[in-house]
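Exercise 7. Given the encoded structure of a 338-residue chain, write a plausible sequence.
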């Protein structure tokens, strides 16, 4: 009954225009009939709690039902969040100023809240920091995040007024990334995404990924044109990177640095940072930590209380069996294979 209620609520909220656009895309790549895809997508939405975006991203049209049931879909992920995360603590992650204050020992950089800071404080801040990152307090996905270089031509008073008007209230010292990470892509700070589960006073690392900017924007976010791939226990990238459209990159399109085989500096220290940070708010047990690498070691950029499950299981990054990560997540979160 619970599953039926969830299914009906999802149907009521569905964007049918995007649903049929997605069917067109899958028809194009697979050659399968649109009628078949329509009914198969509905079947998967009920049987596997998979939205049409899940179906598209995970190439469900190519999978057997035995393979499909191993995937973390939207509905499955919601179950994990209910099991591990107390939403009354989400404000620490959703409000970037609160996050920086709570996790200051891991953030390791100066920051300013323009909702409280005077123009004079802002002037002192930019006099000290010649490059700043400005962000909205409560948006995600890299939206309205901007890198600003301060020089003799900068009208500080006007900048202060503009940032307040655009609600880019969080001002941070710019993270200067490790020279190796800069070599990979210098336009953005390229961050590691470490997903952890904290349960029964124990932290398990569920996923190790790296997000790489496309060389054209100041951010590396997957939803803002960036790409991602996975790295192994030795800090070595093991697969090509992939962007949101499914395009693969063996070599970075701008820097021309080979992606597969790239060795990430301070990867062990980054894992340790994520594990330690996960103990800070144990009421939120499933978190995706974004970590930047500097010449002095890792620093925490932010934590995501709703870590995207879509990047876990792309076609290129799975094993040859095409199995998803649900069995692993189930074993850690529920203590059994489901």
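Solution.
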């Amino acid at each position: 009954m619970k599953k039926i209620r969830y299914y009906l609520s999802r149907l009521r909220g569905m964007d049918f225009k995007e649903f049929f656009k997605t069917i067109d895309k899958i028809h194009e790549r697979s050659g399968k009939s649109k009628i078949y895809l329509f009914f198969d997508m509905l079947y998967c939405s009920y049987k596997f709690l998979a939205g049409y975006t899940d179906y598209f991203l995970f190439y469900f049209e190519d999978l057997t039902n035995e393979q499909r049931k191993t995937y973390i879909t939207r509905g499955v992920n919601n179950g994990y969040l209910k099991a591990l995360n107390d939403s009354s603590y989400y404000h620490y992650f959703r409000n970037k100023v609160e996050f920086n204050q709570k996790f200051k020992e891991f953030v390791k950089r100066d920051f300013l809240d323009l909702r409280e800071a005077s123009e004079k404080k802002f002037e002192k801040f930019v006099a000290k920091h010649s490059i700043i990152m400005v962000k909205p307090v409560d948006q995600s996905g890299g939206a309205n995040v901007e890198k600003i270089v301060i020089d003799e031509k900068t009208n500080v008073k006007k900048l202060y007024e503009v940032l307040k008007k655009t609600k880019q209230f969080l001002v941070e010292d710019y993270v200067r990334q490790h020279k190796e990470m800069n070599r990979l892509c210098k336009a953005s700070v390229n961050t590691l995404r470490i997903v952890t589960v904290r349960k029964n006073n124990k932290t398990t690392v569920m996923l190790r990924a790296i997000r790489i900017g496309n060389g054209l924007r100041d951010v590396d976010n997957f939803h803002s044109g960036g790409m991602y791939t996975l790295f192994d226990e030795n800090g070595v990238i093991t697969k090509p990177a992939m962007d949101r459209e499914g395009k693969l990159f063996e070599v970075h399109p701008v820097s021309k640095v080979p992606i597969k085989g790239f060795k990430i500096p301070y990867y062990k220290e980054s894992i340790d940072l994520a594990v330690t940070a996960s103990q800070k708010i144990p009421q939120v047990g499933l978190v995706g930590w974004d970590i930047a690498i500097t010449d002095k070691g890792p620093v925490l950029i932010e934590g995501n209380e709703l870590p995207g499950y879509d990047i876990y299981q792309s076609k290129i990054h799975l094993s040859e069996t095409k199995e998803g990560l649900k069995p692993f997540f189930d074993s850690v979160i529920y203590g059994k294979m489901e």
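Remark. The domain at 86-95+178-333 is CATH 3.30.470.20 (D-amino Acid Aminotransferase; Chain A, domain 1). Students should compare their own answers with the one above.
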